[in-house]
Structures are given as structure tokens and as C-alpha cells.
Known about the structure:
Blueprint: E1 15-21, E2 26-34, E3 40-47, H1 52-68, E4 75-81, H2 88-101, E5 108-112, H3 118-128, H4 143-146, H5 148-160, E6 172-176, H6 180-191, E7 195-200, E8 205-207, H7 214-222, E9 234-236, E10 248-251, E11 270-272, H8 281-289, E12 293-295, H9 297-300, H10 303-312, H11 317-342, H12 346-363
Parallel strand pairs: 3-4, 3-5, 6-7, 6-10, 10-11, 11-12
Antiparallel strand pairs: 1-2, 2-4, 7-8, 8-9
Helix pairs in contact: 1-12, 2-3, 5-6, 5-10, 5-11, 6-7, 10-11, 11-12
Bound molecules: nicotinamide-adenine-dinucleotide.
Residues 143-144, 148-149, 176-182, 200-202, 238, 252-254, 274-276, 301, 304 line the site of nicotinamide-adenine-dinucleotide.
Amino acid sequence: MSSVFKFADELGPLKVIHVHEPGTGLKGVLVVDNVACGPSIGGVRMAADVTAEECARLARAMTFKNAAAGLRHGGGKSVLLGDPKMPKAQKEILVRGFCCALREVEQYIFGPDMGTDEECMGWVKDEIDRAVGLPRELGGIPLDEIGATGYGISHAVDVAREYCQLDISGARFVVQGFGAVGKHAARFLSGAGAILVGVSDSIGAIQNPDGFDVEALIALKAAGKSVIEYPGAEKLDGDRIIDIECDIWIPAARPDVIHEGNVDRLNTRLVVQGANIPITYAAEKILHDRGILNLPDFIANAGGVICAAVEYQGAGEAAALAAIEEKLRRNTREVLEAAQREQILPRDAALNMARKRVEQAMSYRRWHTF
Ligand code: NAD
């Protein structure tokens, strides 16, 4: 029996499908976790070392993220074994083969994730028509180009700041990871009057208490350079991004960057999680005890999947941005109100909210199942 079943509970997973095609070397796994809210949406992760267990955990995370965002979609995820940088022709064979093998599983809609991109989704659409995150020519909304997740983060910040008596104008913020999520969050927040005082990428970090020109940083990255090449900036080791004093700290890079061993170094009033699982639960508890407001990942970074769901309905960029704004503001408020009222961590409030929505959706199903 698959070890994935050790994760099975009253919410899912509904289906676990292993795909193996010896002729092409295709090996992959699909986990459809829960479809009570509708057909599941989740990305295809391609990496040499992905496992079925990782897939199951990510599928559950999508169940909660989609339910929390109030989307008509359940949670699923798939993983494809292989080096994502393999020759394109070989990758195309694997992606096309994988989706064809899953053609009949209508409860899963393919999306991009680590190791796959909009071109891959174009191949999936060509084969089975069930994909989001498509190229613009196929009706896609390029979510990383428009900054869907960063846009959502800026709205989450704008609501959360009320709960820690912070003005956005002049608020000093730090971004760890200046990629698709981080740079757009910085762009929208600086547009609202906040000041970027620290930023990092995989090469290193820089700080300036007087603030950086975000557009100049974006241009630097577009030229293939690191943020540390910003003229005249004070350079730091990448890890020192944690110590920079600020009002808002935004992790937008890797998982588990804040843990019990370094959480005490954070010197901020508000944390809004752009990356997935950037802070361990133990560290979140410490932040809570220190009175630092901390908005969890699946509430704060839902902009991307909301954009994908809007795309799937055939609507355009303006509708996507309107949906992100409305949902992010409402959910941030609901989570922070509940956390305050019940004196619990925002993550627990968010999980309670998402679980309740999934269970309610399940109650409408004939057999009360996922
Ligand atoms: P990306 O690859 O575009 O950017 C990641 C950035 O982080 C890059 O600038 C990279 O240099 C930097 N980085 C890598 N390692 C670092 C380190 N150790 N310290 C500091 N910076 C480092 O990726 P992205 O799409 O911006 O995603 C970032 C995170 O947000 C991931 O956890 C992803 O799962 C999550 N996320 C992304 C989206 C989305 O819409 N793209 C949506 C939800 C969640």
C-alpha cells in the first residue's frame, strides 16, 4: 500500500495515482486530495527527488488554500520525476505523456509549479484541455508577469497593518527573495508609500534605512544581475536579512527560513508570508508570544491561484485583480479577527476557517465524502 495513506484522514486524499511508462522513463504521481468545493487545481512539480508523500502534503495545502480563498476548486497536486532542465524535447514528451495518462481524471486541473511553466501548460491544454497558467496567446493571464501574488500580498498588508496600528505611508519593509512574488510585493507596497529598507536574493542582501528605488532594483534583476549590485548599497550576507529592523518583514523565497534558532532575530511588527511554509510552526508560536502579527502563507499568497481560477473561468486580467483584492482583504480580516477573538495563532484561525469551509462543502455531497 502506498505510504501516502499514512496522511489519510476525514478530508482525503480522494485519489492517489501513480503513473509509470517504462518506454519514455515517465514516472509521476497525482494526488487529488479533496473535491468537495469543485475540481481540484494544483501545480505540477517537476524535480529529480520529488516523492508521493511530498505530493500528498502539497495537495492538502491546496485544499486549504483554495477553500480559504473561496474558490470553486478543491485541492490536488502532481509530481513528475526528472531534472526540469532536461532537453526541452524530452521534457515535452514527459509532460504530454503524464497528462495523457491522467486524461480521464477530470477532478484535477493542471497548473504550473516548480520546474514547470506556462509553455508546459500549453502542451497540457493541447492534449487534454484542462490547464491553468497558460501562455497569453491561449487565453492565459501571465500571473508572475502581472504580479498576481505580490498584488494580493499588498492588500493583505494593508488590512493586517490596522491590527498592529501601522501606517502604510512611511512603513519600512524588508523582502527576502526578489523574484516573482517579492519584487511585485515591493512594487505595490512602495507604490502605496511604504519604504523598502532591505532586500535579498540567492546571492546576498543589501540594506539602506533611507530606502531603495524598487523600479531600479527590478531593472537590475531583469538585466540578470543580483540585488547586491545596486549602486552604493550596503552589502550583507544573505542570512542577515533577518536582522534588519523594519515594520513589515516579507519572506518570499524558500521554506523554513525562520525557525526556533533564529526567530528571535526578527525585529519587526508584522510578518506577511509570501513564500510557502517559510516559518516553522514553533517559530510562529514564538512570534505570537512576542506580539508580532504574522499572516500565514496560504492566506497571504493566494493571489496566484485566484488568478488561475479566474483564468479557468475564461475571464481576463482585470477580473483577476478585482477577485484577488476582494478575497485577500476579506480573508485577511476574517483570519485576524478570529485570531484576536479566540486568542489563537493566525495560522490556527486560518486552518479552522479553511477546514470549516471544506467540511461545509462536503456536507452537500451525497455521501458526505470528499
Ligand atoms: P522565483 O524563483 O521567481 O523567486 C525566488 C527568489 O528568491 C529569487 O530572487 C531567488 O534569487 C531568491 N532566493 C532563492 N534562495 C534564496 C535565499 N536563500 N535567500 C534569499 N533569496 C533567495 O520564485 P517565486 O515565484 O517568487 O516564489 C517564491 C516563493 O513563493 C516560493 O516559496 C513559492 O512556492 C511561493 N509562491 C509563489 C507564488 C507565485 O505566484 N509565483 C504563489 C504562491 C506562493
